[in-house]
Amino acid sequence: MHPEKVIFAFFIVLALTLNFGFFIGEHDDPAHHNVYELFAAIVINLIATILKLGERTQVGAVLLATSLVAVLQLLIAALVWGIAAHVSEAGLTPEATTAIVSLAGGAMLANFISVTLLVIDTVRFNR
């Protein structure tokens, strides 16, 4: 067993599960979506992206692309949250929360693709 592969897989799966934890709940209810969980999802996705930078295979390139998509969507979600909560006079409305959760859903889909590719690559490598 290679420790670096375990760490790599750990962060990819953790990115997906944190993203899922933020995504789950009523899409328009801010009480169901914790800002700290969004922050943790962003940090873990950034770490997973950095770990993917060393890959030199075609699968590695796709893994990096999906990770960059997830990070971008989560950062935009955080930006929307920050603007809605601290700049907008209306505050964190159900519409803003829906937009934030939708962006996190897109990031979750990108993370799901990463995990799926990782599993496929692992199964293919063992044969």
Write the layout of secondary structure elements.
Layout: H1 3-23, H2 35-52, H3 58-86, H4 94-126
Helix pairs in contact: 1-2, 1-4, 2-3, 3-4
Task: Indicate the overall shape.
Answer: elongated
Mean pLDDT: 93
Work out the helix count: 4
> What is the strand content?
under 5%
Through-space gap between termini = 16 Å
Reported for the largest beta sheet, the result is: none
Q: What's the total number of strands?
A: 0
Q: How many distinct folded domains?
A: 1
Pick out its properties.
0% strand, mainly alpha
Short description:
The protein has helices at residues 3-23, 35-52, 58-86, 94-126. With 127 residues, it is mainly alpha-helical. The model has no long low-confidence stretch (mean pLDDT 93).
Give a description of the structure.
The chain has 127 residues and is mainly α. The protein has one domain (3-126). The chain has four helices and no strands. The chain has helices at 3-23, 35-52, 58-86, 94-126. The two termini are 16 Å apart.
